[in-house]
Amino acid sequence: MERFRVHGGGPLTGEVTVVGAKNSALKLMAAALLAVGRTTLRRVPDILDVAIMAELLRRLGCTVDHDVAAGVVQIDVPERPDHRADYELVRAMRASISVLGPLTARCGIADVAVPGGDAIGSRGLDMHADGLTRLGATVHVDHGYLVAEAPDGLVGAPVSLDFPSVGATENILMAAVLARGTTVIENAAREPEVADLARMLVAMGAEIEGVGSSSLIITGVDRLSPVDHEVVGDRIAAGTWMFAAAVTRGDVVVRGFDPRHLEFVIDKLVGAGVVVDRRPDGVRVTCPRRPRSFDVMTLPFPGFPTDLQPFALVFDALAEGSAMVTENLFEARFHTASELARLGADVRVDGHHALLRGRERLSAAPVVGSDIRAAAALVIAGLAADGVTTVEGVGHVDRGYPSFDATLRSLGADVRRERVEEVPFAPAT
Ligand code: EPU
Questions:
Q1: Model confidence over 395-412: pLDDT tens digits?
Q2: Angle of CA points 211, 214, 220, to nearest 5°
Q3: What are 292-325's pLDDT values in tens digits?
Q4: Are residues 245 and 211 in the same domain?
Q5: Is residue 259 part of a domain?
Q6: pLDDT given for residue 52 in this prediction
Q7: Distance 288 CA to ligand 1 centre (A)
Q8: Is residue 271 lining ligand 1, measured as CB closer than 6 Å?
Q9: Based on the domain organization, do 376 and 347 belong to the same domain?
Q10: Which of 115, 289, 337, 425 is deepest in the core (most CB within 10 A)?
């Protein structure tokens, strides 16, 4: 097992350029299944989840080439792909579920393993299943697999989502583009990654109105063509580096993303006394003195993103004043709070609220990151702690951030990976 060894230190300074968004690239790879032939994706991040999605597509009969240095993935899709996504891959990466919509549309059947709960919550699939059912598929769970069948093809229909789920919107959208007739998705997710997917589908020949809005009108077409598409810049990675700059009271230029995708976060940081200078392709973040804390309530886009909530906890743990952070999307996403308490943060969790009173400095300790964002946030907390913090969860970070520790080192941080022996004790229950 590996862990990060983080020396608390001074401000981060320098420049970072983010690549394409993980949560877009994975869905664009799944969307390639909708067209026979070669799809080319550019600015694809070199992360473990992309390698898992590539493996999944290979097992479905596609040929996938990933030129890591160039950030280019090429996917050759056969006339008749296979339609089964095994548990082994789905449990390794939940986003595998995004092949459900395209496979049902292309093959008339899809069997995708049910991923089960994970570190951030139970994460139901009811809206994915209901949406495909509305489009005429029969959907049931069979021996741990979600099976969707539409042997005579899908038929467009109105679909109203109870909640603007990112994954459900994407799956229904990818199914509807090849359905007969018109589908209207109401209360659709508006995340920039969903809009990126819709834009690629339109380039492939899909008919979609309302891209970027909560009402998507899709008129099905018979066939789509493969395209060459550049993945939208990773706003969550960008937000990560912005918080890292603020927490260490540094000076960092973050490029490669559209600041309008982080409007809410930027407003919060500015209100707290962090200087955020917007540029066409990013921001410069400087934080010369201790900022004030701010309340956070996570919400679907354009609200405060749940993926940046762990970083807000770190920020508030160190800022001046008290703050309440409310998590509205995932019921189990406060793992970072209890680990921050190990670093000396004054934080209490009550249901889906965390209450924090800022401290000038944290105190280094061994901690465990339970998911991609939690582990990354704890490394950043370690930069603002006295002494050496070790963070388990390197594998999680590698799933979502290309060269995470190398990027931190380029900004002046002292962060290394080290191998550790497995401890022969069971964790406390
Ligand atoms: N939900 C249901 N039923 C459904 C679908 C969703 O109850 O059928 C619930 C979920 O349990 C959750 C809420 O709705 O409580 C929101 O889930 P959503 O479907 O919007 O999220 P997702 O598609 O599973 C994506 C990202 C997450 C990100 C969320 C919210 C990917 C691969 N994942 O997940 O990213 O937090 O949207 O923006 O796109 C990450 O990158 O670390 C990550 C977890």
A1: 999 999 999 999 999 999
A2: 55
A3: 999 999 999 999 999 999 999 999 999 999 999 9
A4: no
A5: yes
A6: 95
A7: 35
A8: no
A9: yes
A10: 337
Hey, which residues does 353 pair with through a beta bridge?
A: 326, 350
428 within domain boundaries? no
Query: Based on the domain organization, do 383 and 396 belong to the same domain?
Result: yes
How does residue 115 score in pLDDT terms, banded at 50, 70 and 90?
confident
Q: Do 68 and 157 sit in the same domain of this protein?
A: yes
- Helix then strand then coil, in percent of the chain rounded to 5, is 35, 30, 35
What are the start-end ranges of the E strands in 114-214?
138-142, 145-149, 158-160, 182-186, 207-209
Residue type for position 406: A
| Cα-to-centroid distance, 2 and ligand 1 (Å) | 28
Report cis status (omega within 30 of 0) of the bond before 302. yes
pTM of the predicted structure, to 2 decimals: 0.97
Q: Which ligand 1 atom lies nearest to the CA of residue 330?
A: 15
Task: State if residue 235 touches ligand 1 by the CB under 6 angstroms criterion.
Answer: no
pLDDT tier at 120, thresholds 50, 70, 90: confident
Q: Answer whether residue 95 is part of any domain.
A: yes
Is 427 part of any domain?
Answer: no
Which residue's CA is the closest to the ligand 1 atom numbered 10?
A: 123
Q: Is 118 a catalytic residue?
A: yes
- Please give the mean pLDDT across all residues of the chain: 96
* Rounded-to-integer distance, Cα 33 and Cα 174, Å: 10
Final residue of a structural domain among 175, 208, 227: 227
Q: Which of 76, 86, 118, 414 is catalytic?
A: 118
Its domain, for residue 295, covers 2-18+234-419
CB atoms within 10 A of CB 260: 11
- What total number of domains does the chain contain? 2
Identify the residue whose C-alpha is closest to ligand 1 atom 39: 23
If asked whether residues 12 and 134 sit together in one domain, one would say no
Say yes or no: CB of residue 121 within 6 Å of ligand 1.
Answer: yes
263 plus 403 within the same structural domain: yes
Q: Which of 304, 329, 398 to mutate to test the pocket of ligand 1 (most atoms within 8 A of CB)?
A: 329
| Nearest residue (CA) to ligand 1, atom 2 | 124
Q: How far apart are alpha carbons 65 and 77 in whole angstroms?
A: 12
Same domain (yes/no): 137, 265: no
What is the distance of C-alpha 422 from the center of its chain? 29
Å from CA of 275 to ligand 1 middle: 31
pLDDT for the residue numbered 117? 67
Kindly indicate the confidence band of residue 424, based on its pLDDT and cuts at 50, 70 and 90: low
